[in-house]
Write a structure and sequence with these properties.
six-stranded mixed beta sheet, 8 helices, four-stranded antiparallel beta sheet, Rossmann fold, alpha/beta
Length: 249
């Protein structure tokens, strides 16, 4: 069974007298441990799709099945619990609480869920090691670089062992070198933790880390690029860029 299954997803917005069709009948599945990237021009529906997949918004039509739960059949409260227990979010702006240390920010989802944070000490240490912040666990956000803050945000998203991690432009606020290190970290979370990851990005370098790249245009999937696992990163990147040129993305 796939971790996530999007079925005929459509989303419409009413802007004054105009009806905006952000998504039109999108279908795709994501398997456990898979790294999927979503690309497309501005206004193609990338972020809208990500929000629907994570239960942050509801579709006009269609349904999302997340971790064997049909979101369309749940109440708002039930959907919130499914999202809290099964989805980790990483955004372009790190959304860390400035008064908390790195490790306190990472443990925040556990505390919000009413669980004893001491029970997560081993996982906390493992994640701090994974993101390279063991020595900076007691630092507050203003004592960390942008890349380090994004690493804290990724560890926070992973602390509850979610079924899926959704990242919306995770490198958009970072320089190229730091952005590459963040994408390498997300790749490692797939390879070492068997974490399922979906990333929305406009950056071909970021999407080249993925197992599959889905291209959106005008609210629908128009192409899918799936490189061989064995080919080097430079070839994967070239494949993404060639596809972008062909689709005029």
């Amino acid at each position: 069974m796939p971790v996530l299954n999007a079925k005929d997803l459509s989303k419409e917005y009413q802007l004054g007298e105009h009806l905006v069709k952000a998504l039109v009948g999108v279908n795709f599945k994501v398997e456990k441990g898979e790294f999927v990237a979503i690309m497309g021009p501005s206004g193609s529906g990338k972020s809208t799709l990500l929000h629907l997949l994570g239960g942050l918004d509801t579709p006009t039509d269609g349904n999302v099945v997340l971790a064997d739960q049909s979101l369309a059949q749940l109440s708002e409260q039930q959907a919130t619990l499914v999202r809290r227990h099964n989805v980790g979010f990483v955004f372009q702006f790190f959304n860390l609480l400035p008064t908390l240390t790195a490790e306190e920010n990472i443990l925040l989802p556990v505390i919000i869920d009413g669980k004893d944070p001491h029970l997560f000490e081993e996982r906390l240490t493992h994640l701090l090691d994974l993101v390279g912040l063991l020595e900076r666990r007691s630092h507050k956000p203003d004592q960390l670089s942008g890349g380090e803050q994004q690493r804290v945000a990724i560890a926070r998203a992973l602390i509850t062992q979610p079924a899926i991690l959704l990242a919306d432009e995770p490198t958009g606020n970072l320089d190229s070198k730091t952005g590459n290190s963040i994408m390498e970290l997300l790749r490692r979370s797939c390879d070492e933790l068997e974490q399922t990851v979906i990333v929305v990005s406009h950056d071909p370098k970021a999407t080249a880390y993925a197992d599959r790249v889905i291209f959106l245009q005008d609210g629908d999937i128009v192409h899918e690029y799936k490189p061989e696992n064995s080919i080097p990163f430079t070839e994967r990147l070239r494949g993404v860029m060639v596809t972008m040129e062909q689709l005029e993305v």
